Amino acid sequence: MTHASSDSPTPATPSPRWYWEDFTEGLSMTFGPRRIERQEVIDFARQFDPQPFHLSEEAGRASLFGGLAASGWHTAGIVMRLMCDGFLLNSSSLGSPGLDSLRWLKPVLVGDELRARMTVLASRPMKSKPHVGLVQTRWEAINQRDEVVMTIESWAMFGRRTPGEAL
Questions:
Q1: If we measure between CA atoms, which residue out of 50, 63, 152, 60 comes closest to residue 111?
Q2: Which pTM value belongs to this model?
Q3: Which of 33, 72, 152, 159 could lock 92 by a disulfide, CB 3.0 to 4.6 Å apart?
Q4: 21-47: per-residue pLDDT in tens?
Q5: 84/78 Cα distance (integer angstroms)
């Protein structure tokens, strides 16, 4: 019976760039833009939000939106992707306990270009877990006309670079 050697080197996993300590109140980062394409709007709607104004130009024009509009859930997903690519995948992120608020302020139409801006509102160590810090953020989706089209406020959990004592 042959065994694989455990002497072969394994690639080192780089340390995350962003830890809880890096998210100071007032920090703001912007990512994107990302252009919204017709087919992705329709594909998302078919699978997750099949309301007529997300599925056809005609229904979109006849709606309050005035054109083929992306689902708000699609918009939230795009912003999440921009945040992941921008910093979350290179952070000590431990997830989120949920959203405090989510607002869709303006429609996102085919051809729009979205940027995502994250602003730190507050930060504090987690009382029960000394290796975790909590960060309260506001995320904004901003279109090419500099209009805020969606906001999200939530708390996120990040690993601490230097764990403190349990409080």
A1: 60
A2: 0.88
A3: 159
A4: 999 999 999 999 999 999 999 999 999
A5: 10
